[in-house]
Every structure is written in C-alpha cells, then in structure tokens.
Inverse folding.
C-alpha cells in the first residue's frame, strides 16, 4: 500500500534502473545540503489553535491572477524522459487535474509546445537555463507564443554541482553504453521495453530552434549545467525585452540578492538550493526562506522548493510566509510508479496531508495558516 511519498520512492526504486534512480536522488558532494533540507523542515514546530470551526478548509490561493486549487505546484526537473516516455506531458496533465501549475524545464525531453498542448488551459510556467543567449532567446519567444504564463530563470547553476553518483555510473547524454549500464538496464525489463521505441531521450527544446540550439556543444552544456557565467543583474533587461509576463528568479538564498531582484523589477522569487544538487554548503531552503521573506517585506511573492516530502512540510513553509511551494522528487517517484496517475496520486496525498495539517492547526484557509505561530528548533 502506497500511503506517502516515501512509499512511492521505494516503489520507484524497484521500477527504475539504478542509474536513473541515482540521477533523481543524487546530491552534490556528500549530500549535507540535501539532508539539511529535510532535517530543518522536520525541526520546525507549528503551534495549533483549538476550538475553531474547521468544518471546511479552503486550500485555494491566487497567484499572478490565476487561481490555484492548492498552494503548491510541480517544480521544473530535467531529463524526465529517462523515467518514462512523454514524462513532461504526463506531469503537466497530473498537475492540471489537481488544479495546480506545472513548471517545464529547459532540459525537457519534449518540445515545450507539445507539453503546453497536453494540458490546454492549465497553469504552466517555463523554466530557463541560459547557456547561449540566442538559444535562450528562442526558447523564451517560443514559450510566449505557446502561452506559458510565467518565466522562471534559474540562477544557481554557474556550473553543475559535483554529483558523484552520476560520475560513478558513467551517466551522460548522449548515452555511451558500458557493461555496468547494460546490466542495469537488462535488470529492469519493464522500463527497458517502455523506453525502447523512443530510444535515448534528447533535449527536444534544443533541437527545435535551428543549428545553434541543436548543436551538440549546447546539449552537452545543458547536461553539465555549463551556463553563461557572464549573465549578471543588468542582463535581466534583455529578458524583459523578450518576456512580458511574470519573471521569477529560482535559486535565490541570500537576502541581498532578494533586494537586488526587487531593484531589477523581478516579479517573484523561488527560494531554492536545487534540492541539494548544487552547493553542498548552502543553507536549507526553509532556513533561507525566513531571511529572504524579511528582505522582501511583502513586496513580491516568494515561493520555495527543496525538501518537501509531506503536506505538513507545505504547511510549515506557508506558515513561515511562503506564497506557495514547488515539489520535485516526489512527483517523479509517482511518475516512475504509474505515469500520470502515479504523479497525481502523490499530489493528492500531499493535498490530503496538507488539509489534515491545516485542520489540526485550526486554519480554515491558507491566509489563516500564515498566521500560525511557527518556530524553527535550534
């Protein structure tokens, strides 16, 4: 019986080859940052209020003029086509059925237009990596034409984190078969049969916009997270010239960067340490959240990802003041187990846990939850 995201994680481990699971689970260096994400969330206490009428609990919020049924969405994650063919469309469909947003990664294995068409009318955001300015500009313009509602510029990857699990597995794109990888694949026949018709996934959005975007060098740069390190605050004006909708920065942890984002006209922040996959010395996202919120002082919405595993974790982030959170790995576990239905099952488990937490805290709405007394232990 699959009762929580950990159950789905274990079930995904039985479905996926080891190198795929390691890619999902992997963290930078020794995994300290990943563990801080989990431990610091676990340490937060929420103090209940009692004798309140919680006959109905409303989890809906409004973000950039769009109503979300729940105060969380699916975070952008790359190379989802390794888990299941058509993965990003399956995730977008699951999010749409739950009335929440889905953020598509530049490193998707499906064209952004096809993912948008898979869940028409739903809330979809486009995440952007900048390796090559012209290629990035093409993606932004395509996302605008396709009807993506917000652009999320990821800013915490000047280089890729040191993910040793991938290095030990010899994992790279395009795939270069090794004896170890072959044995891993052969040991998971259901996954192999599902993947065989489409072959090795590629970065579809880099092969759809001409020679520059489709070059092997740019694809290799995306896998290695070899970004344009000359990109600075003043370059946000370039993006503003291409994108007229909400612009968010993902990967902000320092309060001074939050203040600079406001000065440069950013519309929202996502406090994130990339799920512990970049800098192993970074603070947990939940610890950074309080400092960023203090710097922002209500001037723009602040979201959070990294470490969310329970609906109670979502309640904690909201109680501290987050506008909403984004969920990464848990949705991928559900995807691995049962495609779109599995991802939806995970989302609904989180939703049920959140409603239970709100009820126990005496919060009938997200606004009331934000007023709950919250304190981080230590």
């Amino acid at each position: 019986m699959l009762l929580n995201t950990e159950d789905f994680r274990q079930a995904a481990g039985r479905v996926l080859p080891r190198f795929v699971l390691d890619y999902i689970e992997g963290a930078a260096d020794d995994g300290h940052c990943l563990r801080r994400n989990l431990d610091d969330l676990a340490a937060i206490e929420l103090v209940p209020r009692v004798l309140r009428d919680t006959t109905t609990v409303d989890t809906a919020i409004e973000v950039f003029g769009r109503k979300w049924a729940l105060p969380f969405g699916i975070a952008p994650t790359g190379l989802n086509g390794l888990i299941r063919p058509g993965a990003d469309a399956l995730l977008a469909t699951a999010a749409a059925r739950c009335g929440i947003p889905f953020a598509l990664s530049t490193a998707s294995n499906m064209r952004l237009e096809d993912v948008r068409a898979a869940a028409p009318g739903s809330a979809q955001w486009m995440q952007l990596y900048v390796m090559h300015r012209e290629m990035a500009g093409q993606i932004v313009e395509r996302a605008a034409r396709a009807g993506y509602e917000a652009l999320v510029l990821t800013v915490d990857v000047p280089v890729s984190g040191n993910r040793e699990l991938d290095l030990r597995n010899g994992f790279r794109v395009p795939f270069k078969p090794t004896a170890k990888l072959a044995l891993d694949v052969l040991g998971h026949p259901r996954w192999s049969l599902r993947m065989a018709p489409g072959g090795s996934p590629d970065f579809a959005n880099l092969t759809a916009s001409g020679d520059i975007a489709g070059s092997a060098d740019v694809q290799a740069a995306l896998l290695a997270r070899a970004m344009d390190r000359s990109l600075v605050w003043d370059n946000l004006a370039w993006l503003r010239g291409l994108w007229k909708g909400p612009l968010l920065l993902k990967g902000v942890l320092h309060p001074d960067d939050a203040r600079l984002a406001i000065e440069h006209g950013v519309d929202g922040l996502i406090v994130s340490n990339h799920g512990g996959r970049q800098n192993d010395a970074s603070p947990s996202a939940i610890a950074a959240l309080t400092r960023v919120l203090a710097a922002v002082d209500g001037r723009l919405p602040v979201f959070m990802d990294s470490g969310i595993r329970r609906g109670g974790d979502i309640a904690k982030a909201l109680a501290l003041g987050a506008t909403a959170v984004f969920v990464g790995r848990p949705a991928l576990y559900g995807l691995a187990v049962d495609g779109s239905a599995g991802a939806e099952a995970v989302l609904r488990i989180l939703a049920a846990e959140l409603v239970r937490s709100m009820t126990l805290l005496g919060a009938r709405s997200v606004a009331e939850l934000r007023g709950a007394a919250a304190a981080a232990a230590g």
